[in-house]
Design a protein that fits this description.
It is a single chain. This protein has about 170 residues and is of the alpha/beta class. The chain has one domain: Alpha-Beta Complex (Maf protein). Helices cover about 50% and strands about 20% of the residues. A 5-stranded mixed beta sheet has the order 2-1-3-4-5, with helices on both faces. Helix 1 runs parallel beside helix 6. The relative contact order is 0.18.
C-alpha cells in the first residue's frame, strides 16, 4: 500500500511540474486514453490553473471509439492490433490535432490481469507523446494489479512529458 501512496504523491508532483512548465512556456496539452481511462488527464487537471494548459481529453476505451472520435482507420487497428505502437501514435496525434494543442498524449494497453491478443501480450502498453516537432513512442510491460499498473503507466507518461519538456 505504501508504494501506491508514494506513486500517487509522485504523480501529483509530476503533474504540478508539468503545469508549471506548460504555463511558463504558454503550451497546451490534450490526451487520448484507453487503458488509463482518463487517469493522465485527471492527474494534469488536479493542479490549480490547469484550464490554462489542459485543452481536453478523450477516453476511447472501446476500439470503435478510437475509430469514431479519433478517426483512426479500422485497417490500421486490424493490421497492427489495438495495442500497438502505431495506434498509440495515431491517438496522440489525433488528440493534439483535434484539440489544437501543442502536445498530445496517446495511451493504449492491456493492464489488467487478463487480456492480450495475437498482436500484444497482457501487460503490454504503448504510449506516445506527440508534438509538432515529432513523436516519441514508449513500450512498457507491467505485471501488477490493474490499479498498480494504471498508476505505473500514468507515472511513466507524466515522467516522459517532464523529461521531454526539460530537453527543449
Amino acid at each position: 500500500m505504501n508504494d501506491i501512496n508514494e506513486k500517487k504523491n509522485d504523480i501529483q508532483r509530476l503533474a504540478t511540474e508539468i503545469g508549471t512548465r506548460l504555463s511558463n512556456s504558454a503550451l497546451t496539452i490534450a490526451t487520448a486514453e484507453s487503458c488509463t481511462a482518463g487517469g493522465v488527464a485527471n492527474a494534469i487537471a488536479s493542479v490549480d490553473g490547469a484550464s490554462v494548459y489542459l485543452r481536453g481529453g478523450f477516453i476511447t476505451y472501446a476500439t470503435e471509439l478510437k475509430e469514431q472520435l479519433l478517426s483512426i482507420p479500422h485497417s490500421l487497428i486490424a493490421e497492427n492490433g489495438v495495442v500497438s505502437k502505431v495506434v498509440a501514435e495515431a491517438m496522440a496525434v489525433a488528440a493534439r490535432l483535434i484539440t489544437h494543442s501543442d502536445i498530445g498524449i496517446g495511451v493504449t494497453g492491456y493492464i489488467g490481469t487478463s487480456g492480450g491478443d495475437e498482436h500484444a501480450d497482457n501487460g503490454t502498453v504503448f504510449f506516445c507523446i506527440s508534438q509538432q516537432t515529432g513523436n516519441k513512442v514508449v513500450k512498457m510491460q507491467v505485471d501488477g494489479s490493474r490499479q498498480e499498473n494504471s498508476l505505473l503507466v500514468i507515472h511513466r507518461i507524466l515522467e516522459t512529458v517532464c523529461l521531454q519538456s526539460s530537453s527543449q
